[in-house]
Write a structure and sequence with these properties.
Strand order of the largest sheet: 6-7-8-3-9-10
Structural class: alpha/beta
Number of strands: 19
Strand content: 15-25%
Oligomer: single chain
Largest sheet: 6 strands, mixed
Number of helices: 21
Shape: globular
Helix content: 25-40%
């Protein structure tokens, strides 16, 4: 159905996709894996006719059922692409926050696809949207339909994007990191849904991911990309059981598993000996109704209820739960970004920092990476003159932090829009760590990273914790990452912390049925 022949895409003189050839048959799921910046997303965007105008297709062509959609040296036929986009081919984007219109309710945005490509009445369109929301695991679809993107959790926004892509049952779905922000239970539900649609309708899927476990579970064939080229292509079994290339073997070996725990600290022992860095006592967190709020009336909505815990110097405390359970709401309250609370939050450290889940929306798009990395140092110097640094020292610190998170000096003068999703995530981590905080909230800090960089970042965070005796509240939906990183784990469900314990204790002897389900699904 799809043929990509000798595709080369360049931004100016820099080729980011180099002579890539792929084919995709009806009913097939083709996985494309590789590190951040390997050319996966640019290949997909070029196929979909969505790559930016600054990109030049210098060689090759793209065909859909023998119809030439694009060809090197010829201008993009936008009218032709419009007849295919949505109806016959659709895309699930990596970052839903930047793909959804922040000024419109999400129900209307999904409904627009039906309005442009069908003859349903307004009532029929709404019913179809609500049914699709329910099928992708969105609870209370009526409420989601009436909400704005910022009123939904990251995982909920991702599911809205998936609903938008599948609602017309297109023959081709291009899924670019479709489950990055989802917890393991919903991730499995979404992957099951995509597989079911694939089997029932015999449609094709181009599945782009840095999660090799997902690619192994869902894909028929897998293409491995490195530096803009396909370095290995084969069946999923061949790629994961008998990889031919050294690069592929390195990717497979870097996948997190419960057999490879890297945390070497003793959170439980330290907890008995040290004073806490953070104390949270009987904390409830609320969102107040106001204007076009997701919640009607004047009632407060309780996102977190009765949280009690402490974090100790050098400790990683994991916080695990499904999307929308209150993890991010709790972290924002701890750092003072939501003051609608009851209970106590007591900090015993200076300059606590946060690594946000969505780096694109948390990095100023108008500033360079070098400027962004120096901003925490400027802020620290303004608050405490003893911490003030010269311009040269701040630049040197920024270059050093870039190197420590696996990025070269050439990124210093670039802007966030010029980086891949994984590269932006690394900048966000570097920005949080550069001022040497005593306490760090890491909200899905490695969710958008490929497995090799993910391993580097986890090792970096472990190293910095040891050097700085840094305490960390580590929020993640990836149970295997939490196992590797954390000394203790808190399980959260429906706004309440239902179980807390040492990492080995939680994994070996979970008490709650919900905890057992999370461990099984992960």
């Amino acid at each position: 159905m799809i043929k990509i022949e000798d595709l080369t895409v360049a931004f100016g003189r820099r080729e980011v996709v180099k002579h890539v050839s792929l084919d995709l048959r009806d009913g097939e799921i083709l996985g494309v894996v590789g590190e951040s910046g390997s050319g996966k997303s640019v290949t997909a965007l070029t196929l979909m006719g969505l790559v930016s105008d600054s990109a030049q297709m210098t060689t090759g062509r793209i065909l859909f059922d023998q119809v030439v959609l694009r060809e090197a040296g010829k201008p993009l036929d936008r009218a032709l692409y419009r007849s295919y986009q949505g109806a016959r081919m659709s895309m699930v984007f990596q970052e839903p926050q930047t793909s959804l219109n922040p000024t419109k309710r999400v129900g209307g945005q999904v409904e627009e696809t039906l309005r442009l490509h069908g003859t349903l009445t307004k009532e029929e369109r709404k019913r179809k949207v609500l049914e699709t929301f329910e099928s992708v695991g969105l609870k209370d679809p009526e409420r989601v339909y009436a909400s704005y993107p910022h009123q939904l959790s990251g995982g909920m926004r991702q599911r809205v994007m998936i609903a938008m892509a599948i609602i017309l049952h297109p023959r081709l779905i291009v899924a670019d990191e479709p489950t990055t922000a989802l917890d393991v239970t919903v991730q499995n539900q979404i992957m099951g849904l995509l597989r079911e649609i694939n089997q029932k309708q015999n449609n094709a899927m181009l599945f782009i991911t840095h999660d090799l476990n997902l690619a192994r579970r869902i894909c028929h064939r897998v293409a491995v990309m490195k530096d803009g080229q396909v370095v290995e292509l084969g069946t999923a079994e061949e790629i994961f059981e008998r990889p031919r290339k050294e690069y592929t073997r390195m990717l497979v070996e870097a996948v997190p598993s419960r057999m490879k725990r890297v945390s070497g600290s003793d959170g439980g022992g330290r907890a008995l000996k040290s004073s806490p860095v953070l104390e949270v006592r009987n904390l409830s967190v609320y969102y107040q109704d106001g204007g076009n709020s997701l919640f009607s009336g004047t009632k407060k909505h309780r996102a977190v209820e009765g949280a009690d815990f402490a974090v100790y110097p050098g400790e990683s405390l994991g916080l695990v739960g499904e999307s929308g359970c209150g993890k991010t709401s709790l972290s924002k309250a701890i750092l003072g970004m939501n003051r609608r609370i009851e209970g106590e939050i007591i900090h015993h450290s200076l300059r606590p920092q946060m690594v946000f889940q969505d780096p694109y929306s948390s990095l100023n798009p108008a500033k360079t990476i070098g400027w962004l990395l120096q901003e925490p140092l400027r802020a620290a110097g303004a608050l405490d003159h003893s911490l003030a640094m010269t311009k040269g020292d701040m630049e040197a610190a920024a270059y050093d932090m870039l190197r420590r998170v696996g990025m070269g000096e050439e990124y210093f003068s670039r802007r966030p829009s010029e980086l891949s999703g994984g590269q932006r995530q690394r900048v966000s981590i570097a920005q949080a760590l550069i001022a040497g905080p005593g306490f760090l909230v890491a909200d899905e800090p490695v969710s958008a990273l490929d497995v090799t960089i993910q391993a580097q970042i986890m090792e970096l965070m472990q190293s910095l914790q040891r050097e700085m005796n840094l305490a960390c509240l580590f929020i993640s939906h990836d149970i295997n990452v939490v196992y590797k990183m954390c000394d203790r784990i808190m399980i959260m469900k429906d706004g309440r912390i239902i179980e807390t314990g040492e990492t080995e204790e939680i994994f070996d002897n979970p008490k709650e049925e919900y905890t057992k389900l999370l461990l099984k699904e992960g």
